Amino acid sequence: MLPGARALRAAGLLRPPGAVPRTGVARRARRGSGQRPVGRGFALPAGPDLRHFLRAAAAGQPRPSPELPPEPGSAPGAPKVYLETYGCQMNVSDTEIVWAILQKNGYARTKELEEADVVLLVTCSVRVPCSTAKALFLPRSLVPKVSLQCRCSPLAKKVLADKTEARHNPRTTKGTPREKAEQAIWNRLQHLKALKARRPRARAPLRVGILGCMAERLKEEILHREKLVDVVAGPDAYRDLPRLLAVAESGQQAANVLLSLDETYADILPVQTSAGGTTAFVSIMRGCDNMCSYCIVPFTRGRERSRPIASILQEVRMLSDQGVKEVTLLGQNVNSFRDLSEVQFQSVAAPGLSRGFRTVYKAKAGGLRFSHLLDQVSRIDPEMRIRFTSPHPKDFPDEVLQLIQERHNICKQLHLPAQSGSTRILEAMRRGYTREAYLELVHHVRDSIPGVSLSSDFIAGFCGETEEDHLQTVSLLREVRYSIGFLFAYSMRQKTRAHHRLQDDVPADVKKRRLEQLIAAFREEAARANAALVGQAQLVLVEGPSKRSASELCGRNDGNIKVIFPDTELEDAAKCGAPGRAQPGDYVMVKVTSASSQTLRGVPLCRTTLSRAAASH
Fold it and tell me: Is the pTM of this model over 0.70?
């Protein structure tokens, strides 16, 4: 039994031995075919202030249970909101939270910009512009309008190597990634300004809002620069959106960018923005305490705080009911999850750090940790894949590695962000480990999880990086042989420790050259790693048609690598149904026939299930 299992059972979160996990199909059968779960949310009354919350807390009032929201557009004349998401997958999750709040407050959703009464941009202030969205190595179903990128959220930073090289070529792009990221938003605001100007007078004025990290960082400039924006809301202020929009409707500007020590939106079940999708994100914690010297996240997202496990399990069950086949657990430092929501959780023993790793903060006692959450989430639906990102390599205790190895539905793919291969630069970055400790962890992970696929982050040209430091990073890339890489040239961010203490002294042309060399090394090693899969059968979760050919399907294997194969009639592995074509959400066994650094190609063998495929290996 995992540490803390008794506390889980006492809280009603752990099933007794022998209990059968409920699959989405079983739950749907019990519920009835005519009922479909929808997102639910708790909406604040109009105009709450700090005293409202303090009075409620002092009186010990429990939070209301989430209620079913009205269907979008059900109220005649409901104001229509248009949402655009820029950035990491945390922003995709935030967009779903925002929509749940607004839907509960009577707003309708529109996909047509010209129809909108409210336009909200969920922004990021630290990563590349919208022209690079196609270069992000994400399932298409998870990229509504993903365009900017947070360094601390690696899945959405998974850069296709050949496009990464062009994107960081100073001859074709100008400015730092942060400057380009924010300029993309300013450009979009100019377009919306023109849309405001030509809006018919018979309609209410168009209200424009900036949400997320850029809102928190640039509140004053956003509000005053050409009066383009009506509403500004930081990542912890989404509950206040109905009030802010009401203020804006009266012709005033409204803002709330206060960071919170406890806001997790735990009582709001996000409304999926891509109906019928096979994959989904579930945010389990917010903020980061690591304070890496290059990273802006602690200053835009605040301190670490985790959702109660009960609310996470509720959301994952809802997604299973809706037919979602893959869930990615999200957090800026996802594997430092620590649930203190129940008194009995506070006495649970804390896991140790990975060997040779340290933190800038004191050890945190008590709380149900990531291994407990991962255990419970993986029990919900044996046909649902579970991923998580972005972790820190310090937080990989043996309990987590053992769970990944044992559970067939936890993907055998780990993100181990290295950032540099030089111990001296890692110290300057305040990463809390040496090159040697990192490599020891890599070897331990591969011993614990045979066949595991690894990905990583790397920064080229950090403050004070010498040629020798750079060559050590190249050698680390080659030694570990990652399947997926997130490679960026360094750009200074205001408020960070590096901005106050270090000098950005590596010339732009040197950063470019070093980045190109990292990309070349990554591409070569990834091609070798993928070539080893040729001739093997890979279980692929189908996402939909290939972009390049309507006669081919696209999906991802357990290692999160894209797999392309012909769309043909397939037998069912159970031999219980007539041959048919694979649909999004189906699992297909594919024999790999060729590989590149980014993609596998193969021939489909049969349709199957996650459980059946695991049992046959």
Answer: yes
